[in-house]
Amino acid sequence: MDDAFLRIFMGGDIFSDAGIDVIEKKLKNLRQKYSIDFVICNGENASGGNGLLEKDAIRIFKAGVDVITGGNHIFEKRDGYPFLATEKRVLRPQNYPSGVSILIEGEEETPGRGFDFFECNGKKIAVLNLQGREYMAASLDCPFRTAASCAKQAAESDALLFIDFHAESNEEKEALALFLDGKAVAVCGTHTHVQTADERILPKGTAYITDLGMSGVADSVIGSDAEIVIKRNLMQVLYKMENAVGETVIQGAIITVDKGKNCAISIERIQF
Ligand SMILES: [Fe+2]
Ligand SMILES: [Fe+2]
Question: Under CATH, what is the fold of the domain 5-271?
Answer without folding.
Answer: Purple Acid Phosphatase; chain A, domain 2 (3.60.21)
